[in-house]
Amino acid sequence: MRTHLVRLALIIVTAAGLPAAVLVSGGLRAEVEPERGRLVSLTSAGRELLAAPSPAFLLRLTDPADRTSQWLDPGHAEQVTLRADDQQIVATARFGARRLTAVTTWRAVDDGIEATTAVTNDSGAILESVTAPMLRLRPAVHGDADGTRLFVPGGDGYLVGRDGWRAKPWNGRGYPGHASMQYLALFGQDGGLTLQTRDPQALPKAFEAPYDAEHEWIELRVSHALPFVAGQSFTTPPTRLVPCGSTWQSAAAMYRTWARQQPWARPKRGADAPPAWLDGGFITLGGQLRPLGLGRLAVQPEQWPDVVRRLRAATGAPSVLLDLREWEHDGIYTSPFYFPLYPSDDGLKALLAGARAESAHATAMVAGLQWMIEREPYQTRTYQVTGFDGRARFERDGRAVCVVGRDGQVQIDAPFFNWDGRKAKMCPAHAFTQAHFPDAARRLAGAGFDLFEFDQMNGGGCPPCYATTHGHPQGPGAWMSAAVTRFVAAARAAGREVRSDFGTSLEDPSEVLLPVLDSYVSRADNITEWPANGAASEVVPAFAFVYGPLARPLCIDVQHSVTPDAYQLLLTARAFAGGCLPSTNLGLFGILYKHGEDDLLPTPDKLDPAQLRLLAAVTRARCGPLREFVSQGEAVAVEPPPLAPAEFAFSVWEDGHSVAKKLMHPPVLASGWTLPDGRTALAFVNVTETEQRFAYPRAGGEVRVPALDVTVVHSP
Question: How far is Cα 638 from Cα 628, in angstroms, rounded to an integer?
Answer without folding.
Answer: 19
